[in-house]
Each structure stands twice: as structure tokens, then as C-alpha cells.
Amino acid sequence: MCAGAAWGLTTVAIRVSRLGDAPAAQTLFYQLAGAFVILLPLAACTGRLQFHGTALAWASLGFQTFIVSFVSYLAWFWLLRRYLAARLGVLSFLSPLFGVTMGALLLHERLAPSFITGAALVLVGLLVVNGKDLLARPRTRARST
């Protein structure tokens, strides 16, 4: 719950501040620099700076660093500058569904009935909230004659 609230507050803070007009790379830099300044001392104080990495651990860390923390957030901040946050929220709600579905397709994992029910409820909720926008016809400008 706290992570979801933090994500929402970050999105609101970006949209209502000057960062809403800043380049996506600048917003990403501030986000990652702020996390570094806060989390590195916290990790040092709690004794969590010890890392004895295997090849798999280093590969996972590289993936999290470059793909998750760089590419995906850069794309998110770019999208946030161009589209309404409410419409982008659909991507946030669908991401876990895509992840589990890809696990089922690529790794042959079994989908539990509770997941299928939950996914259906998420989709119905998205349709209820965004259905009016999805069904609306685009307006065309009247021609001046």
C-alpha cells in the first residue's frame, strides 16, 4: 500500500511541479539521485551494504539498474509529460497482469483461478472507470465555410 501511495504521490508531484515541463531524462536523474541520497545511508545504517554477488546476482542487478531503473522510468516520465496521469494509470494496473500472463505463456506456469478472477475484476474496474472515454467518438472540428 505504501509503495502504491508513493508512486501516486510521485506522479502528482511531477505533474504539478516544474518537473512536468522538464525533459524526461532530467526527471529521471532527480528521481534516481534522490533515491541514492536517501537509500545509501539507510542501507549503511542497517548493515545491508554487504553484497557477495554471483554471476546471476550481477546479471539481475544489471537488469534492474538499466532496464527497470533507467529505460522503463525514462519511458514513464516521457509518457507522463504527454498524456494524462489517469490514462497512464491503466498501464500500472495492467503491468502485473501482463507479467503473470507472460509467466504462464513462456514458463508454462499454471494460472490459479483466483488470479483469473482477480484479473477479470481489474479489467472490469478499468472499463467502469475508463469506459466512457473508450466508447466516446473523437470530436471533429467544424469546417468554416
UniProtKB/TrEMBL annotation:
At the top level, the lineage of the source is Bacteria
The record's subcellular locations are:
Membrane
Keyword Transferase in annotation: no
Query: Which Pfam families does the UniProt record give?
Result: EamA
InterPro entries for the chain: AA-Vitamin_Transporters, EamA_dom, EmrE-like
What are the UniProt keywords, alphabetically?
Membrane, Transmembrane, Transmembrane helix
> One GO cellular component from the entry?
membrane
Q: What is this protein called?
A: Permease of the drug/metabolite transporter (DMT) superfamily
Species of provenance = Labilithrix luteola
